[in-house]
């Protein structure tokens, strides 16, 4: 018999009884389960197995099914509100442990968890839009979500929607209901999705990496996981401080006062050469103040950061997987389907559609449009399109040269060079950029953002044709498209920075 577990069970049971009216149902249920477990362990009825041996057995038993398990739990975490009962971090850590044993691919696991978590959030968001706040008012009290709390949450989402989605991903009960509340409070999808993608990706990667790095000593994993509350407290404290600074400096008079204080402090021999730098820094400061906060002013940067994150992960992630294992998770299966689905008529159509990403066509089109933009003095748009295409070309050539992957056997059209990444798919992403520029600059198209969605179909079709024509593996097209997305997003972020600095300089001169 072990005294400490029994004393812990007694203390926890007393706390649950004393606070039963103020604790939410999931906490009560979890507390009762913990009490029962401590009692069973302390009385000797349950003997804990060797955790390291148990994990090794789990990894061997699960094998490739780990992808499905982790993906399903990441989806259900918010898509079915499972996170109200069981924390999803546990599944992520276990998945990371299995990946650490070399049974499955770490990069693929992160991609599966990231995608599944985002899809679960989108399902929960859509349920919130359809069922509305009435559903929460009726059923929320069972989980401590009263009408008063709902009103407070809706006000918080209205003012700090992006932060609520991003930070809430790391807070158990908030993570489980935040997407639903975002939908029920009518947060626009274009505002919800970028923050959600960034939060889901960081959450999945963080906890999977914990399991991956420390898999040989699961006690270390548990120690790190238990310290999550301390880490979260530190993170929240830092964020609160940053929020205060941002709010303070968002007012022009406060920024001006800070500038004057810094200029006064530098008004002495040997330091005056730094004064022009302080004046110039007003531009970058305004840029970050305007765009790191949620809302319409920060949405452009947040969206580009989400695109950059997904694209970079796809490009380098598949690079790592191919270098280590030779193939993506389902490359061979998809290649087999392409062979089985062969049809002469479909092949002819695919040969036509695949030219929408042909290098000669895309380079010529981008060059012509870039020159036209320069003639009309749309400097930044020309920079994004031209520099983005040059950087995309560089990413394609870099991958082909360093990875030197063999193409699939039995290609239906001629193709030269190595397979990874798909240049056709990468260059076809420029259609999306062209559509975005058209929506911004052509008066008749302004506000019609659905055009960008339609343009996005083109690189998807081009990538599908490359796989069907058996000149690329599926991972080639995903890596190529991701690399191009990352390149154009990075150039666009630079353009945003330049624009704000330029506008600030003009205002300073006019003032």
From TrEMBL:
Could you tell me which CDD domains the record lists for this protein?
Answer: PAP2_like_2
Classify the main location. Answer: membrane
UniProt keywords, alphabetically: Cell membrane, Membrane, Transmembrane, Transmembrane helix
Where's the Phosphatidic acid phosphatase type 2/haloperoxidase domain? 380-492
How does this chain sit within the bilayer? Multi-pass membrane protein
The reply to whether Transmembrane figures as a keyword in the UniProt entry is yes
Question: Mind telling me what this protein is named?
Answer: Unannotated protein
Originating species: freshwater metagenome
């Amino acid at each position: 018999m072990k005294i400490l577990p029994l004393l812990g069970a007694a203390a926890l049971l007393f706390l649950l009884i004393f606070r039963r009216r103020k604790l939410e149902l999931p906490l009560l249920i979890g507390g009762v389960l913990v009490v029962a477990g401590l009692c069973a362990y302390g009385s000797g009825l349950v003997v804990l197995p060797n955790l390291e041996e148990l994990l090794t057995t789990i990894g061997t038993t699960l094998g490739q099914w780990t992808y499905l398990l982790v993906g399903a739990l990441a989806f259900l975490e918010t898509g079915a509100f499972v996170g109200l009962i069981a924390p999803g971090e546990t599944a992520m850590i276990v998945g990371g442990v299995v990946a650490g044993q070399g049974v499955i691919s770490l990069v693929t696991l992160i991609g599966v968890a990231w995608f599944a978590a985002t899809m679960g959030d989108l399902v929960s968001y859509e349920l919130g839009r359809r069922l509305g706040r009435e559903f929460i008012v009726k059923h929320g009290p069972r989980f401590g979500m009263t009408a008063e709390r709902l009103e407070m949450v809706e006000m918080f989402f209205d003012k700090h929607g992006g932060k609520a989605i991003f930070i809430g991903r790391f807070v158990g009960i908030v993570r489980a209901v935040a997407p639903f509340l975002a939908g029920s409070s009518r947060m626009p999808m274009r505002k919800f999705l970028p923050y959600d993608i960034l939060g889901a990706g960081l959450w999945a990667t963080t906890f999977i990496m914990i399991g991956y790095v420390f898999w040989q000593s699961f006690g270390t994993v548990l120690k790190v996981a238990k310290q999550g509350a301390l880490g979260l407290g530190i993170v929240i404290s830092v964020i609160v401080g940053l929020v205060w600074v941002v709010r303070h400096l968002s007012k022009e008079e406060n920024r001006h006062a800070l500038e004057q204080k810094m200029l006064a402090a530098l008004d002495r021999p040997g330091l005056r050469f730094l004064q022009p730098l302080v004046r110039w820094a007003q531009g970058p400061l305004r840029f970050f103040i305007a765009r790191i906060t949620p809302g319409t002013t920060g949405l452009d940067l947040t969206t580009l950061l989400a695109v950059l994150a997904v694209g970079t992960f796809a490009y380098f992630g598949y690079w790592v997987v191919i270098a280590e294992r030779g193939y993506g998770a389902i490359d061979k299966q998809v290649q087999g389907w392409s062979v089985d689905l062969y049809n002469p008529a479909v092949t002819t159509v695919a040969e036509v559609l695949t030219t929408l990403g042909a290098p000669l066509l895309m380079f010529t089109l981008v060059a012509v449009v870039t020159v036209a933009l320069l003639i009309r003095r749309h400097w930044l748009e020309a920079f994004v399109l031209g520099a983005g295409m040059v950087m995309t070309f560089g990413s394609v050539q870099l991958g082909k040269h360093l990875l030197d992957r063999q193409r699939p056997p039995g290609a239906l059209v001629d193709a030269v060079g190595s397979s990874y990444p798909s240049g056709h798919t990468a260059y076809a992403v420029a259609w999306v950029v062209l559509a975005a520029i058209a929506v911004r600059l052509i008066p008749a198209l302004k506000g019609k953002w659905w055009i960008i969605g339609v343009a996005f179909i083109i690189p998807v079709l081009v990538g599908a044709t490359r796989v069907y024509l058996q000149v690329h593996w599926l991972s080639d097209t995903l890596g190529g498209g991701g690399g191009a997305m990352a390149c154009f997003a990075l150039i666009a972020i630079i353009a945003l920075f330049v624009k704000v600095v330029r506008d600030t300089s003009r205002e300073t001169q006019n003032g």
